[in-house]
Each structure stands twice: as C-alpha cells, then as structure tokens.
Hints:
- By secondary structure, the chain is α/β, with parallel strands linked by helices.
- 39% of the residues lie in helices and 17% in strands.
- The protein has helices spanning 2-19, 64-74, 86-97, 112-127, 144-147, 176-193, 221-229, 282-291, 302-317, 320-337, 370-382, 407-427, and strands spanning 33-37, 40-43, 48-51, 105-109, 131-135, 163-166, 198-204, 233-237, 262-265, 276-280, 345-351, 354-362, 367-368, 385-386, 388-390, 396-399.
- A seven-stranded mixed beta sheet has the order 4-10-9-8-7-5-6, sandwiched between helices.
- Strand 2 and strand 3 (48-51) form a beta hairpin.
- Helix 10 (320-337) runs parallel beside helix 12 (407-427).
- The longest helix is centred in the last third of the chain and has 21 residues, at 407-427.
- The mean pLDDT is 96.
- Bound molecules: pyridoxal-5'-phosphate (PLP).
Amino acid sequence: xxxxxxxxxxxxxxxxxxxxxxxxxxxxxPFHPVRGEGVWLYDAAGTPWLDAYNNVACVGHxxxxxxxxxxxxxxxxxxHTRYLHDGILDYAERLxxxxxxxxxxxxxxxxxxxxxxxxxxxxxxxxxxxxLVVTRWAYHGVTSALACASPSLGQYVRIGDHVRLVDAPAxxxxxxxxxxxxxxxxAVADLRAHGLKPAALLVDxxxxxxxxxxxxxxxxxxxxxxxREAGGVFIADEVQPGFGRTGEAFxxxxxxxxxxxxxxxxxxxxxxxxxxxxxxxxEVMRAFGQxxxxxxxxxxxxxxxxxxxxxxxxxxxEQLQRNALEVGRYxxxxxxxxxxxxxxxxxxxxxxxxxxLELVADRATRAPATAQAARVVNGLRRRQVLLSATGPDAHxxxxxxxxxxxxxxxxxxxxxxxxxxxxxxxxxx
Length: 429
Ligand SMILES: Cc1ncc(COP(=O)(O)O)c(C=O)c1O
C-alpha cells in the first residue's frame, strides 16, 4: 500500500514538473489505472474499477476488434487523404448512412475541437456572418475560436465579442423549447444591434456541460427554426451524445426531430483512437469548398478509418444502441428510487446511457448541493466507481459509461451510490 501511495505522489510531482500548471487531475486522490477491459479499469494491484464515466471507450476499453483493426491497418499502410484510399470512402459511406440523407458530405479531423472549428469556418463561408450563439455553460473545444465560445472554461477565457450566450433548456416541461428559442431570438437581436450577422447556433444536443438537459424530445426544433430565420445555420455538436449513446436515436439531434446543417463528431468515434469529423449538407459546404482547400495531416488516415469502422461494426453487431436504451432506462429508474431514501437526490435526467443526477441541498428551492456532489464523486472513487459532476454549480453527477454497461453494472453503481449518499447525508451540508 505504501508503495502505491509513493508511486502516486511521485507521478503527481513528475506531472507538475514536466507538464506544467494547466493540466488538472480528477479526484482528491488521483487515480492511476494501468489496464482497461470492457467497463473496467484496473490499477497496478489488479483491483477492478467500474468506469461509469468514459464515453470515449464506447464499445469498451481495449475492445479486441478495434485493437486488431488498428494493428492490422498499421502493419499495411498509413498515409493521408491526398492519396486515394478505399478506407475513408467506405467509412464515409457507412457513417453517412447512419445520418439523414440531407447530410451528404463527411470531413475528417483528429479531435472534436478541430471538427467544431471547421464547422464554424464552413458556417461563416456559407452565411457571410460571424455571430455565434451557444449556451451559457457550453464547452465546444480547445482552439481559440472555440475557447471564446466555451464559457464553462471559466473566467480566464474571455467570451468573444461575436458570441452570445443563452440559458440552457432546463425545466423539462412543455415550454422548454419555447423558452430556449426565445433566448436564441434575443441573442440574434442583440447580435444585430451590434452590427453582427448571425452565422450559427452551436449546441451539444444533450447539453452535457450545462448539466445534462434531454427532455422533452423535440425541444430543439423551435430554436433551430429561429436561427435559420435569422440567416444562420444549426450546428449539432454530437461529440458527447453521438454513436447511439442516447438509446432513442443514433444521433442526439434525431431525438429532436431536426436535421442540422452540420453535425460534428468526436470522442467515441475511434474508441480512444483520435478520430473525429463532421457531416454537412452539400449546399452548406459549397462556399467553403470553393474558396478554400482542406487538408488535415492525420485526419481520415487509413488507420483512423479502420478504427472508426471497427467501432461501428461493434456498435451495430452488439446492438449497443438498444443496450443504451434499456440499461439507461433501468439505471434512471433505480437512481430515481434513491430519492425516497436520500434528501440530496433531486432530478434524474438523461437519455440512454447519458444520465445526469442532480443533487440538491433543498428540494423546495433546488439549491445546488455543490460541496456534497464533490464528496459523492470522491466517495464513489474510494469505492472503485468512477464518475464526475457537471453543470455551472458542479452539482449534477454525470454518468456516461461505455455502451457495454449492463444491468449488473448499473446495480453495482446504484448500490455504491446508495452507501455514499447515506454517508454524505449524515455528514450534512
Ligand atoms: C460537447 C463537446 N464538444 C467538443 C469537444 C472537444 O473535443 P476534443 O477534446 O476531442 O477536442 C468536447 C470535449 O470534451 C465536448 O464535450
């Protein structure tokens, strides 16, 4: 045990020395996994940790078919998109087949940030505008263009003069869509009042960093109509909800009955291999494509396409979208039942295996239980369960495990959460 503790302290010190001050670690006691398999991460002592957080490893950690596909292609050829290759075309065909037919072109990048950055450039070229509308606690990526439209990065990142923030669609009632669209209309009016032409509404279609807002399905439609009326495009950021996670649909935007102008993709697409991209309506892509060339040294390379293709194989053959629907529903029911035993439990939100559990200090006022949420996250970490908290007050437990999460894993999570909530409730606010 002492060796493990020393090892952790050494690694933390080495990180600080080598990587500098901008990196952050999860948990009061940092976690050091050395191996992964399915929904499990293992530490050096061989102890299994239930991963209820990693949506990147969507088909499971170290999934053998994905590993094999990467290794096989890497042993044959890895080049770039300025040579002809079947892999990128086969994958583009398969990817676009999962989307509405209006989204006719695919473009590949290495990260979700690059995909969103490119989407903004495409939107700008198509609309001739620069104005951008995002939610009040959005996160869309690391580039300069996205950091200035990612208020969840905190006070040190300045929001761009061309960016307007709207309240996330909270409430879950029948007027959620109307309120959200009113916010978008007000943002558009303010852009215009400042002489700016709207280019896009960019939202994560499960509003993950805002605190997970998924209902009622359909609430996005009026806001999408509003941005289009204003001459802008709708960019669906599918980096979090995409690839079947919401259970009800393969893409988050589909739950809302809308077809975006651009859908950006990332995280789960390569199960950890860095591959991302976007799908776009050809007529929206035209102006950008005519004015500019696109080349991304690594984006769309044969190894990345082999990885992404193997991920689609596993999702489809193992029916992981259906698993997300069924296990997600079961998990939310069990979490909601905890409300009868723990005053801290507020609302349970989510779709499929994207779940937000709001912790409240007072049910009547819904005052956020921020400190308690941090204790719950760390308490679960001490019981070998990994998850985190989200939202502006960091009081919503964010539960988005690999899609191979089954009922027995949900049971284990709920059992440990029950213990931790009891402990946290006893300790008081
Ligand atoms: C909604 C959303 N969009 C974009 C990104 C950026 O993706 P990446 O970290 O691959 O650049 C993230 C990453 O967390 C995200 O959550």
